[in-house]
What does this fold into?
Amino acid sequence: MKRLFFLFTLIAMSWQARATLTIEITQGLEGALPIAVVPFAWRGSAASPPPHAVGEVVAADLRRSGRFKPLATGEMLARPTRGDEVDFRDWRALNIENLVIGEVAPNGPGGYLVKFYLYDVFRGEQITGYSMPTTTRDLRATAHHIADIIYETLTGEPGAFATRIAYVTSVRQGQDKERVELRIADADGYNPQTVVSSEEPLMSPAWSPDGTKLAYVSFENAQPSIWVQEVFTGRREKMTSFNGINGAPAWSPDGRYLAMTLSKDGNPDIFVMDIARRSLRPLTRHRSIDTEPAWAPDGKSLIFTSDRGGAPQIYRVSVNGGDATRVSFEGGYNARASYSPDGRLMSMVTRVDGQYRIAILDTQTRDFRVMSTGRLDESPSFAPNGSMIIYATRVNDKGVLAAVSTDGRVQQRLRLQEGDVREPVWSPHQKQERSR
Amino acid sequence: MVGLIQSKVERSWLRPPGTEGLKCAVRVRLGASGSVLLANVVESSGNTAFDRSVEAAVRKAEPLPMPRSPRLQAVFRDLTFIFDPSS
It folds into this structure.
C-alpha cells in the first residue's frame, strides 16, 4: 500500500506542470537511421544450415528503403545472438541507435522457429521481440515480415517488404522464338513464379486492390485482349477483345471497375468497365491518343497520358468524365503516371536530354524530381506504403528491375532475373500472420 | 551553459529525412554529473521516427555539460528541449 502511494505521488509529480529551463534545438544532421542487424545464429546442426541468411535479408530490406543505414557486419565490435550477450556500450561507441539480434532454430521436419529482438541502444531497452514459426519455403517471407515489424516500430508507418511484384519477362528460345511470361516475385526480386506463359506478347499487368487478381493484356490468337486472372487458382476470364487496341487495364480502388484503353471507335480513348455488369462507358473522347489510365486513391478522378497538346503529357479527368486538366508541365514528354498511396505524389516517365527516366511530381508543392539515371527507364510503381518506387531499367541491353527510395537517397538494382524484364508493378499490402 | 548543452545535443541529432516542418518537445531530467536520467517526448510531432530521433539525440549527448555551482545545477537538472528544425 505504501509503495503504491509512493508510486502515485511520483506519477502526480511528473505530471505537474513546472516551469523548466527550455532549450531550442534547430540544427541536426539529416540522415538515415543507423541500425545494426547482427547475423542470426543457427541453433541446429552445422551440416544442415537454413537456406537463407535471415539477418542479411532483413538488413538488405531496411537498406533498400532509404530510411535505415545498417552497419556492415565487419564493423561490429560484437556479434550477440541472445539478449544476455548484448552489451549496449559496444553499439553506443559506434553511434548505432537500434540493434537487432536473432536466431533460427530447427522446428520439426522442414520447419524453423525464428526469434528476433529489437533494442533501443541509448535507452538500453528491448523495444520488441517476436518468435515466428516458419518453413523452408517461407523463410525469406518471414525475414521480410521481420523487416516490416522493425520498419513499423521505428518509423510508425507500415513496412512493405513482405509484398510482391508482378512483371513481364521474355526469354529467347532458339532462333526467332520467344517465351513471354507474367511472373510474380517477392518485393526484393526473389522467388519468381510464373503466372502466365505465352509465345505471344503479354503486357500491362495490374493488381486488384485486394492483391488476389491480376489484369493484363495478352496477344494470344493474334488479337489483343484484356484478361483477369486469379493469382492463386490460375482461373481466368476474358474481359474485352474489341477490334484494335485493348490495353492498359487499371483497377479502381474499390475493385469494382477497370479503366482501360480501347480504340474500338477508331481512336484510342479511356473507357471504364463495370466488372460485374460488363458494361462500358467512355471517359475521354478526343481525337488524340489517350492511354495509360491510373486512378486517384479516392477513386474520384483518374490521370492518363495524352498527346492532345502535341506531345505526351499527364492529364486528370473526373471519374464522371468531362474536361481533362493538364497536370504535368516539366519537359516535353511525360507518360505512364500513377499516384502514391496517399495521393500526394505522382510517379511518371519523363524525358531528360533524350533519356527516359523516372520522375516524381509533388502535387501540392509542384516540385518535380528526376529519380533515376538510366536511358530507357520505364513503368514506375509505388510500394503500397509509398516508401519506394520500383521500375524497369536497361543494363547491357536487357531489362532489369530497379528500386529507388521515394526520397531519392537509395538506388538499387534488384536481383538479376532471367530474361528481359519489363513492366514491374508492386502489389498491395498482403495479409500476414504474426505471433509475438 | 545553455549554448554548450545546445551544441552538444545538436551534434548528436540525426534527423530523419523529410521531417523539416516537424516540431516536438522533450522533457529531460539530468543527474548531477550530466547523466540523462529521463528523456521523454511530452509534445509529440505526430511522427514516430522524428520523436524517436530527438530522444536518442538527448541520450547520445550524455553526459551533458553541467554548471559547477550546486544552486545552478538544480536549475539545469530539469530541462525542456524544443526540437524545431524550421526555426
Chain B touches chain A at residues 2, 5-6, 9-10, 13-18, 27, 47-49, 52-57, 59-60, 62, 75-76, 78-87 (CB under 8 Å). The two ends of chain B are 21 Å apart (CA to CA). DSSP finds three helices and four strands in chain B. Residues 14 and 80 of chain B are 19 Å apart (CA to CA).
